[in-house]
């Protein structure tokens, strides 16, 4: 079937699709089941009011139906009125566009809201539908007067799909922990230099002193745990973003719809939770998302967000931990610099050329930074398990 024979529909919500059909589009995902592109996660964002009217994230998923009437392809897409909650920063592009007399917003964002975690962005039953979907996104931008389309935190194996469609690729750096067949946390520590190994043990001991740490999954996560975590999340969100992105209802829905994919790590003093970290479990990775605390305890952040995540990844046999955006402090804790990729389609030819030139120069700096950071990891220089 040629591209001209395909019909792409623009929906008002992922919730307009059947869960089984949507999730079937990710069945061939090389990275395993990604929790964030699941029907459960994306509809929890919609049904909780975390995205939708008034949020600046207006769901507009693009879908293709197959000859059998079932979904054959989809893009989780949103019309954006700002650049908040994306973690790939294009504010300088918006400023330049506005100075030139144009309007950068609205734009189209192909992404998971508020989630700087890698994963598939083109969901299809067959890869041949990727280009038609991306071309449909381009036509949608033109028809709706959108300045551009942006796909962020693309799974590395999907980058060629965007490149073949003529989109511009942009690199950045995150810090991920890689499981090289470790049998335990102590096994991982054995790969570090002696000084770093001692530092991490001291940090863990200091963080755990006087608190009880519990890792909760499934039915063990109760409403009172979500209430406590919401309190932590509000405090962190207010300090980082001005206001939290997710509503309280979002956590209830996530707990109801995908508790088996959630690892909630809480720290207690006696029976009172005082800090927590929320993780999602994928097919090959553990994804750290949110953290917060009502006490100021040295190293507790590192313990709940990084060390407990390593413990869990080893126990679950997962390949890596993605601990979110930014954070050079992760480097000393065994999280290494890795390339992340976004793709961008700019409607205006002249501005597209300017962005392409910017990305070329930016990429040189990113490559230099990654090389520098890669030489400053805490691992032993004679550790032959590392590439």
TrEMBL record:
It comes from the Bacteria. InterPro entries: Acyl_CoA_acyltransferase, FemAB-like. Gene3D superfamilies: 3.40.630.30. PANTHER family: ACYL-COA. This is GNAT family N-acetyltransferase. It comes from Novosphingobium anseongense.
